[in-house]
Here is the input.
Amino acid sequence: MTDVTDVTETGADSGGVARSDRDLSNAADMIICEDISKWYGDFQALEGVSATIKEQEVVVVLGPSGSGKSTWIRCINRLEEHQEGRIVVDGVELTNDLRNIEKVRSEVGMVFQQFNLFPHLKVRDNVSLAPIWVRKKPKAEAEEQAQALLELVGIPEQADKHPGQLSGGQQQRVAIARALAMEPKIMLFDEPTSALDPEMIKEVLDVMKNLALSGMTMMVVTHEMGFAKEVADRIIFMEEGQIVEVGTPEHFFTNPTEDRTKLFLSQILA
Amino acid sequence: MSEFAGAGAEIGSFYPMSRPDTTPPVEEHLPPREWLKKNLFSNVANSILTVLSSLLILVMLRGLLGFIFNPLRQWNATAVNLRLLMTHAYPADQYIRVWFSVAAFLILTGLSLAVWRAGSRIPVPDVGKRVIALGVFVTLATLLAPFSTSARLSWLAVAVFLLVSGVAVSRTSKDRSVSSLSLLVGACGLAALSLWVIPYGHHSFIIDRTPKILAEPGTVDLTTKLPWTLMLLIAVAAYGAGLFLRDRVPAKVARTSLVLAWMVTPILLLFLVLRDPDFDMGHVLSTDIPIFLVFAVLGSALLFWLTNPETGEVGRMVAVTVLFLAFGSFLTPMRMIIRILMLLLAMFALAGPTFSGDRETRHRYAAVWTGVAIFVSWLVTAINTPSTVPVPGQFFLGGFSMTLMVAFFTLLVSFPLGVMLALARTSSMPIFRLLATWFIEFVRGVPLITILIFFSVMVPLFLPDGMSLSEVAAVTIGYALFASAYLAENVRGGIQSVTRGQHEAAEAVGMTTSQKTVFIVLPQALRVAIPPLVGQVIGTFKETSLLVIIGLFDLLFVAKAIIPNQTEFMGSTRENLMVISLIYWVISYSMSKASQRLEQRVGLGEQ
Here is the structure.
């Protein structure tokens, strides 16, 4: 175990300015969204959203509530169905074909706002269940991996407890371990810290930072501006189902071009 | 990536804060006089209510005691007819089979009590308090009951003994405790001992003597007291064995095998022990075993192949083909056993991709299939084999054992059926949803008695030539269908309580719909559904008494129609009904208690 402060400092050094300077132009496209739209009844939640996310890129999606951030991120592993446009994840297009959906889901890990751990299973089984039955790993190997992942997120000693006995921050870290157990190429985070008490947010963000440093492709919906500034390669700002502005954290926080972005930032940072 | 570990370390050092030692406030313990004042006589209205309800209770108790101890009561109607109540016409010279069955159940009970760590420690003074309460009750009852003076005096002596020993025990140290199970064993031991010492008398019809003698002085007959004493010893020994095994066998293995044993034992006892089938070994060797072997070997090979993750689409097609072959086998003349095994194999095949995995998993899956095939083959052969136990009347069991048997088979059939119906009703496929909804709503709209009468009278008329179904079996099937509809609704409640987030989390890690159902939804749904399900199990057990309406010899029928019609016990209906209601109550109450424990256990990790 490395000292914590070291890790966060490295995070700060290589993140911030350094991170957004990374040259990802030669990296492969992991997620391609072309002009996707989605309606709930008469209400249009997404209006022609287009974006491309490169391998190893960390994209933070910001925006006021109800702007369609969560809907978009949930479309990417088909928890919501988009009605128009194309979504291609690592070369597989999301259509109604179940096989494609299963293929995409096994490559995309997702972390939810409400953790959604399985309350009837021990922490270790929460992590190893999918590798055993979806990835068809031998049980012993899957449990070993689960233990290693729990160590990675800093709670190896909680493996034999049930999720209900853990704090919110610990639960969210288990949820991250569970998603990582499927060895995904992409991780989606849907407001991972919004349901946490303030003192627990940091422990989850630290894990996410380390994950970003390790080269994971990540798409994060969050309200944590500090995290966005420090870790993101790119920030996408959404409002009313549309992408309003895209840019590096520097550009976004210091020199936004759109009025709506300025308004949002002034409300957030006030 | 090992530097990830840092994230938790800081938090870890943050938690163990040292706190000043504080003890929780001591719960106030009121002296009796103040307790009475606070809880029963706090104001005028409460005092009036207290007095009135005490009077009411006393009057009712007096009435009950007056009924029980009325010299006109024929309590030995029960004592003489105990065998009739328990097994109806089962031949007395074959009774060793019944005792064997009772022993099997007691062994299972003993093992289960040990493995599930039943029972609790009770502080010795608390036991004393309960004995005092019992003494007070006996005093009260003695004063109220219509006893002769001498009887009253001897009962008062018992009460005084209870009060004195209770006070003595309650004065002992608070730190000593005793396990509730050993108290139970002690009580049962005393009861068994009393059979040897206290002259309860022999209660039996003595056919060749006139006038018929129903009770002779002396202690209980050896054929009764010896088996019961042995049963107690067996139960205690089984508990001891359970304690021994508990620390040597992994808990999960022990519990799974015990649950399986509970499900299989009644069937084995019924068809192997109580019914004693006369197997035609020639036929078994030439036909039954070869059929089984073909299914076991080819079926295992097929399932081993199907559960290979690489098999893919071809596997599903093969599984569906097996299903169609199974359906087709019902259209052509064929042995029933082949049809049933085909149908089972098709289900295993269809579920194969859900449980596919590494070699070990696949071996296990094939082994489960082989086990099921062995059991089903044996069962079908046994059902088709005539019994060697000669029994008059329509069915070889009756009384309490029939009640138990019908309840058990009803639950055994209705549970899987109910879960399947609930899944179908919540399924996203309209055809399943419609069929399940129609079935459930239809069955719930028809009274149980109608269904029972329909199955006992009409179903035999619909059966094809050459196929016969005993009335008990037909009625049990009808009852199971009825129970499954209600059960399905309870399970559906559980399924709907599983949050959307759980479904999403399961989908997000790539589980298929059936994996999600088996590993995530059903375990949580059934846990939520435990209280209503237990209510239903108890209801199903009690409502077997409706069998009396179609004239099956269940417990109620024996108590209500058979015993009161014996010349010796004319008009003893009320006594018999009291006794059997006590039997029903004891069973239902223990089930209720067991379920409370179950709720506590499964609630543990959740909070």
Q: What stands out?
A: Residues 241 and 248 of chain B are 11 Å apart (CA to CA). The radius of gyration of chain B is 30 Å. The first helix of chain B runs from residue 6 to 14.
